[in-house]
Design a protein that fits this description.
The chain has 432 residues and is of the alpha+beta class. The protein has twelve helices and ten strands. Strands 5, 6, 7, 8, 9 and 10 form a six-stranded mixed β-sheet that branches. The protein starts with 6 loop residues before the first helix and ends in a 23-residue tail after the last helix.
Length: 432
């Protein structure tokens, strides 16, 4: 059976050969019957027999017309090419050699688009809806490279989306770069490491009969046997030692691992202090209970998380600041802001991928990254410039956790700072 997506190339090749051989139309029909597949040769025989007395070119043309209907319709070719792309597996970082397989399919599509019969059906490959599913099968770093090249092409040519030919050219370049043996670093390392054999160092361990730990003695009789295990070229010497605690007589632990468990009825005659959970440090401090009741009717800010009111702006635009609440998280190693604040500040940022670790587990997210932003206290006395600020849409906005003057006044030891706390502003969210 003829491959549908390869029908046009097969037909052109077959007719070229017959022209060079100078065969007659009847001979060409015989060649078609002989070399076509099982299914297609059946109707070729019938058409040849039905047109035995007609002018030879008519029967030959009818065979080609039937082949075109069965294998050369544009919809069939488009469907076959789509199936090829859908069946193509995602390429990993270590499988860049598979880029050549993808390039073969893309080259076939590009060639088919030059045929006027298929131009309309395959034109969607000149848009993001046609190319993006293919880009999704590439490793992440190749996706980013394509985004950069495509974006630059859009701006320089002032078009909605780059043509399919640019994407094919990009994949062809990546095939050459990622599979260049001159830059195959992994193969060099693996060859070098394969020549290195692990070295085995044997140390001698003697147990002296005069050594003691808290009254326990180990003698030569405590070492009943020695076993040598041969595993390939490495020998392991296993020495079995009988262990017995000199304090309690337990054979499950050594004397050094013994733990004294004291009871309330035990006297101090043994002149030993009990071991405590703090590693032996004895404390005489008394434990007292302090009042933890909040005074007054406090309805908000009971846990008083470290959420403060600040002004945020870009380093080159200090006059265009935004007032937001910022949550200070001691366990975070990056600065996060909401997508809304990104947009309000007019930050474009570069796209990147990050791993987010929290009590909910690990997750991977794609987001924007700003080079730097400035944070200023509301009194204008302190300003900080923060680098590599990451976009995050999961920042909790818990206004009841914000400390207020009323909350500070409810604590006797916080009365003096209540005047420094701004009142709660429900119109402002935690964006930082």
């Amino acid at each position: 059976m003829i491959n549908r997506e390869a029908y046009e190339s097969w037909r052109a090749s077959f007719q070229s050969v017959t022209r060079e051989l100078g065969v007659t139309p009847f001979e060409e029909m015989d060649l078609l019957v002989k070399w076509l597949g099982t299914e297609s040769s059946k109707f070729a025989k019938i058409i040849r027999a039905a047109n035995a007395h007609d002018p030879p070119p008519r029967g030959l043309q009818r065979i080609y017309d039937r082949l075109q209907e069965r294998y050369g319709r544009p919809e069939m070719v488009e469907s076959a090419l789509k199936r090829k792309l859908n069946a193509f597996q995602t390429i990993t970082n270590k499988d860049c050699v598979k880029l050549y397989d993808l390039l073969d399919i893309l080259t076939e599509i590009e060639s088919s688009m030059l045929n006027p019969k298929y131009t309309t059906l395959l034109s969607y490959y000149n848009s993001s809806s046609g190319i993006n599913p293919i880009v999704a099968k590439l490793p992440y770093f190749l996706q980013e490279k394509w985004t950069t090249r495509a974006s630059s092409y859009k701006k320089s040519h002032d078009i909605a989306f780059p043509p399919f030919s640019l994407f094919v050219s990009y994949i062809r370049d990546m095939c050459e770069i990622r599979n260049d043996p001159a830059f195959s670093y992994n193969s060099v390392n693996s060859t070098t490491n394969s020549k290195q054999r692990p070295s085995v160092i044997s140390r001698r361990l003697d147990v002296s009969s005069e050594s003691s730990v808290r009254g326990a003695h180990y003698t030569r009789q405590d070492i009943p046997s020695t076993t040598v295990v041969d595993s390939g070229n490495i020998q392991y010497k296993i020495v079995r030692i009988n262990v017995k605690c000199a304090v309690c007589g337990n054979k499950r632990h050594a004397t050094a691992m013994h733990i004294d468990r004291y009871t309330q009825n035990r006297t101090q005659a043994d002149n030993q202090k009990p071991l405590t959970a703090d590693g032996g440090e004895h404390s005489e401090d008394n434990v007292t209970v302090k009042c933890t009741t909040l005074c007054g009717d406090i309805r908000v800010g009971r846990s008083c998380g470290k959420t403060v009111l600040v002004d945020v702006y870009l380093p080159n635009a200090p006059d265009k600041s935004m007032r937001v609440y910022a949550a200070i998280d001691d366990q975070s190693n990056r600065t996060l802001i909401t997508p809304e604040l990104f947009d309000d500040l007019g930050i474009q940022g570069q796209h990147a991928q990050f791993n987010m670790s929290s009590c909910n587990g690990n997750s991977t997210m794609k987001c924007r990254v700003a080079d730097s932003i400035c944070v200023r206290s509301i009194d204008g006395k302190s300003t900080f410039e923060l680098q590599d600020v990451i976009e995050c849409d999961s920042i909790p906005s818990e206004l009841p956790e914000i400390a207020t003057p009323e909350v500070a006044s409810a604590y006797s030891h916080l009365h003096r700072i209540s005047s420094y706390l701004p009142p709660l502003d429900p119109s402002i969210k935690v964006d930082f």
